[in-house]
Amino acid sequence: MKILFVTNDLIAGNLAYLLTQEGHDVKLFVQEKDRRKNFDHMVKKTNNWKREVKWVGKDGLIVFDDAGYGKDQDRLRKKGYTVFGGCELGDKLENNREYGQKIFAECGMKTVMLKDFDNMDDAVMFVKKHKKAWVIKQNGHAAKTLNYVGVFSDGRDVISVLKNYLQNRSTNREKITLQKKVAGVEIGVGRYFNGNDWVGPMEMNIEYKKFFPGDIGTTTSEMGTLAWYDDNENNKLFKETLAKMKPYLKKINFKGDMEVNCIVNGNGAFPLEATPRFGSPIIHLHSEIHNSPWGELLYAIASGKPYNLKWKRGYGIVVLLALPPFPYTKNIKGNLSYGMSVHFKNIPKEKMKHIHFEEVSKRPAENVNGETSYYVSDNRGYVLYATGMGKTVEQASKNTYRLVEKIILPKTFYRNDIGESFKTDQKKLKKLGYL
Asked: What is this structure's pTM?
């Protein structure tokens, strides 16, 4: 099958590589020009995806892995093309947080007070007037290091952070959201939707966004995730949140991956934000958990057809292996890691499926040992991810980190505690009825 894969910054770039390995004829378009050197000699590239629409044709598949292409997706579907991904109103759920909360409320969910701001000055004045513990969030998903969870009930620490952003040219023009802080356990629920109905089981996930082990340091895009699938339609979290969005998703003809991140406590589940696209690094755990081919699944969803997704039971863990300048990719320029070789120590070929690339390319020739030679092909630091599964979280952790130890990536850093906090969270979630 011909597949045109469109991405902004390679959120699910490894998926394009997997589709080529399944035997599909894939062309990859990367919107950000600085990221186009990734996946060289791994996936065919194009620098203009719109010119390739005729090539892929109406018998092929067009995959968008990110938000921001909604108008194009709606237009292509009207013309008869088979498109996996979001839509214009789906994009709005993520990019306009006030709109997202409005839809959550209309769908019958509990909501959290929030307000969007076009400038930091107004945000500072708002916190001074409304003395609460607030959470600072970016709009979109590109500037996660702006995020901050307030501690003081009068908002004094949030005001300090906002004033700091005001003094910095790289942050003072960013659009942000202030969301009232809610106590509880943070957990996400996601599921594929084909425009008419759900496809496959629910995905439950716990994200690890802080830079250092023990949830210390700045907020990153994400250092790793713990996730598992659940096919119980009476799942409490699903019924209180995502299930209520079905009429809305059907109305807007959404055909892709939808996730809602929530805080749960004794008062119920409060949706914080929607992710109407592939998430990273959870997409790599999907590859770990799924037994069904990606091409079949994506084409069925894009075609509006049911699909019997085959999957593994148990827990999965994904870990990001990063390099400098991550997580401050906007602040530091220069080839800090570009060209560095990536080695795999005694990893059998069949185990390579547990390694997922983002800023990696192949050298055109094999190295002296007859093995494929990979190198770091970007400067942002999101190099690759390792995944593993187990019947328990402890087994999944052991399997994942055993693999991480065999990845030789000089100067790399990663969190070595993904999944550990679930020991405490699990008890709380069981007590609240969410497990």
From this structure: 0.93
